[in-house]
Write a structure and sequence with these properties.
Blueprint lengths: L1 H7 L1 H25 L1 H21 L5 H7 L8 H31 L2 H26 L3 H25 L5 H16 L15 H10 L1 H14 L1 H9 L4 H11 L1 H19 L5 H6 L1 H25 L9 H24 L3 H24 L4 H33 L1
Length: 404
């Protein structure tokens, strides 16, 4: 089953691997051919853009997708698509002032703030285009476009660093934005992006109707990137290497999701396979073990490359490993809760987790603890989050059995 899946979706798998590795490669190129400060600034931009995309994207596509992929797709399709495009632009406009304020406060550079908005807008458009390709079952095109974008960005950044000694981050961010627009700009009809029409009421209605899904999506993204936010706040100079390390370890989440959860998702959601059966199954354990092995090997390789084969601190490796394993298993548990329509329960749990982590960071910072200590606490709290989620699954299962 796994071999046939790889053979049938090689382009999609390649795209996922490239999506996972392209940014670490870019940061490594920036560090070795440019300087570490340049890599850190770009790592900050990567992190902020991911958070901004998650916060700004509250189910803008839902109405358009219902018509486009539904039986009555020709009915009001142009008007709905126009509203869809305008909603994207409005959401970008709503988040942009926050990005300008953050970058100007952090780097005191107005031009860099404007370039971050352009990069964020290109990331948001790329995110919408990728979602459309997945819904349209064009996985091969999805993978090919990600691969083409990554090749363009890596090659042109390498050319800039080769010919110019003191390159500024402005040029790097501009190349990253152009790469997104070249790869995904053609997926949008330009005539609907030329003019922004007021649609505040529609946006408010969308946010009101989908507020729970938006809250859950935003919280999930924040939690999965909270460790990088901690590093950015307490030791920004290590953000580039930490981002590379996390990206290497995140292969654990990707392998479990693609080679186990995706193959068993229907059985899991129908209740044919319980959580205990999943965790104790040999296939899951083998997948997890292989993922951990690959993640650890990749981590040691990229750390050696980043530090030019010199001595470095291994303390972060087990911390990141524990966090990624917890996130990977929690991904499975959350799906069971999500598809059993316990959205509000899930939001409350995630909100409480964010509050607890924030309080822990505040208390440790008062004792002048290093960021590695704070990250260690965060990893332990991720394990606690997994335990709580598991208890929720037990409650959901018991409730379903009693109803039956």
């Amino acid at each position: 089953m796994i071999i046939s899946k790889i053979h049938g979706e090689w382009a999609y798998i390649l795209g996922r691997l490239v999506a996972l590795s392209s940014r670490p490669i870019i940061l490594l190129v920036l560090k070795h051919w440019g300087n570490e400060e340049l890599a850190v600034v770009v790592a900050v931009f990567f992190l902020i853009s991911i958070l901004a995309v998650a916060i700004s994207g509250f189910d803008t596509h839902r109405s358009f997708y219902k018509l486009y992929f539904g039986a009555g797709r020709r009915c009001r399709i142009k008007d709905t698509y126009k509203t869809y495009c305008n909603s994207i632009l409005f959401q970008i406009g709503l988040v942009s002032p926050l990005l300008v304020g953050f970058v100007f406060f952090r780097f005191d550079d107005l031009l860099l703030s404007v370039l971050l908005i352009i990069f964020f807008a290109s990331e948001r458009l790329a995110d919408e285009a990728q979602r459309f390709l997945i819904f349209n079952r064009k996985r091969k095109e999805w993978g090919v476009r990600i691969f083409a974008k990554a090749i363009f960005q890596i090659i042109f950044i390498s050319i800039l660093l080769y010919f110019f000694d003191l390159i500024k981050p402005h040029f790097i961010v501009f190349v990253l934005s152009i790469g997104n627009l070249i790869a995904y700009g053609t997926k949008f009809s330009v005539r609907y992006l030329k003019k922004i029409e007021p649609c505040w009421s529609k946006l408010i209605i969308q946010l009101r109707d989908q507020r729970l899904f938006w809250l859950l999506s935003s919280m999930t993204t924040i939690i999965s990137h909270l460790d990088r936010v901690i590093v950015m706040i307490f030791q920004q100079s290590d953000l580039a290497v930490y981002t590379i390390l996390v990206s290497s370890m995140s292969i654990i989440q990707n392998l479990i999701d693609y080679f186990y959860i995706s193959l068993r998702r229907l059985e899991i959601l129908q209740g044919k396979i319980g959580l205990r059966d999943v965790l104790y199954s040999r296939r899951f354990q083998y997948t997890l073990a292989i993922a951990i092995f690959i993640g650890c090997c990749a981590s040691f390789i990229v750390l050696n490359i980043y530090y030019d084969m010199k001595a470095y601190d291994f303390e972060l490796v087990p911390i990141v490993l524990v966090g990624q394993i917890s996130l990977a298993v929690t991904l499975l548990v959350r799906e069971i809760i999500y598809w059993n329509q316990n959205i509000l329960r899930l939001i409350i749990a995630e909100g409480c987790f964010i509050v607890v982590v924030t309080l822990g960071i505040f208390l440790l910072s008062n004792y002048e603890s290093g960021y590695k200590t704070i990250l260690g606490l965060f990893s332990l709290l991720l394990i606690l989050r997994l335990v709580i989620m598991t208890r929720f699954v037990c409650v959901v299962t018991l409730g379903k059995n009693s109803n039956e």
